Amino acid sequence: MKATISEVENFWNSRPCNIRHSKKDIGTKEYFDEVEKKKFFVEPHIKSFSKFNEWNGKKVLEIGCGLATAGINFAKYGADYTGVELSSESLELAKKRFEVYNQKGDLYQGNAENLSDFLPDEKYHLVYSWGVIHHTPHPERVIEQVSNYLTKDGVFKLMMYASNSWKNYMISIGLDQPEAQYGCPIAYTYTEEEIYDLLSEHFDVISIERDHIFPYQIEPYKRGEYIKQPWFDVMPDDMFKVLEKKLGWHLLITAKLKGD
Ligand SMILES: C[S@@+](CC[C@H](N)C(=O)[O-])C[C@H]1O[C@@H](n2cnc3c(N)ncnc32)[C@H](O)[C@@H]1O
Fold first, then answer.
1. How far apart are CA 94 and CA 99, in angstroms?
2. Which of 7, 29, 69, 91 has its CA 20 to 30 A from that of 35?
3. How far apart are CA 248 and CA 210, in angstroms?
4. Which residues lie with the beta carbon below 6 Å from any ligand 1 atom?
5. Is the pLDDT of residue 181 over 80?
6. Residues 6+ apart with CB under 8 A from 175
7. Which atom of ligand 1 is nearest the CA belonging to 113?
8. In sequence order, what are the residues at sequence separation of 6 or more whose Cβ sits closer than 8 angstroms to the Cβ of residue 218?
9. Ligand 1 atom 8: residue of nearest CA
10. Contact predicate 157/254, CB 8 Å
């Protein structure tokens, strides 16, 4: 049976995403600096996908901001930023982060399946969501809600997990799990065709790209050491890159509202 939204909320409250990316005192500038450094080291494609600097002066809405690692960057580069997050524990840290860096952002706690219940009726130039919509019981409801918040020419950029991916094959034989934290209640995966279907009622998909295979051994990684798995260590970089482009875990989707 499908997990409920309360189970999803409890899970992310019990261990907000990336909270262990630093061992410094939680909520300090040093802590947030390390969280950002680690996130962008492990997921460097976030920067090239989100293009933080291109949204200067534009209105950006993030669905599932977590600790606001992306959010703080949109704000630093001059976007008028709004973040929405289901987990109050994560949102408190996101608020703290904006305070610590003296940045402005509007942050709302709530379930993105019911955005209009708590988010004022406004239009955004970009709606951005990184690794979130596959964790909610009804992704199609989030997609529908998002369509009401975009300007006519606005862009919807989202990352969703890929089913035909190296990681998912490893999960299927019990050698991996979707999240760092054990027991994630929902982590749907999608083929490219399923993404087209999910979005097709409201959006035209502009592009879907692939990236991300995590190459490091887990135990050293938890201690902050980056030691590759032996099979990735011997693999030439261009071979690994092509594997990421074909079998990466992250589907990088760009979409626009359907034309009239
Ligand atoms: C894997 S984390 C990603 C967080 C953030 N986007 C990042 O990249 O650091 C998934 C996040 O989605 C949030 N989430 C899941 N379902 C949600 C929903 N229905 N509405 C809002 N946020 C949701 C979780 O609370 C969690 O913080």
1. 9
2. 7
3. 5
4. 8, 12, 17-18, 64-67, 69, 84-87, 90, 111-113, 130-132, 135-136
5. no
6. none
7. 19
8. none
9. 130
10. yes
Determine how β-strand 203-211 pairs with β-strand 250-257: antiparallel
The count of C-alpha atoms lying within 13 angstroms of the C-alpha of 118, restricted to the half-sphere facing its C-beta, is: 16
Q: Measuring CA to CA, which residue among 202, 226, 223 is closest to residue 214?
A: 226
Using DSSP's 3-state secondary structure scheme, residue 111 falls into coil
Lowest-pLDDT choice from 1-5, 53-57, 184-188: 1-5
How far is residue 124's CA from residue 153's CA, in Å, rounded to a whole number?
Answer: 10
Which atom of ligand 1 sits closest to the CA of residue 179? 1
239 CA to centre of ligand 1 in angstroms: 32
**How far is residue 6's CA from residue 223's CA, in Å, rounded to a whole number?**
32
- Give the position of tokens 């460097």: 44
Q: Is 89 exposed, middle or buried (0-12, 13-18, 19+ CB in 10 A)?
A: middle
Stated pTM of the model:
0.96
The dihedrals phi and psi of 205, each to the nearest 5 degrees, come to: -80, 125
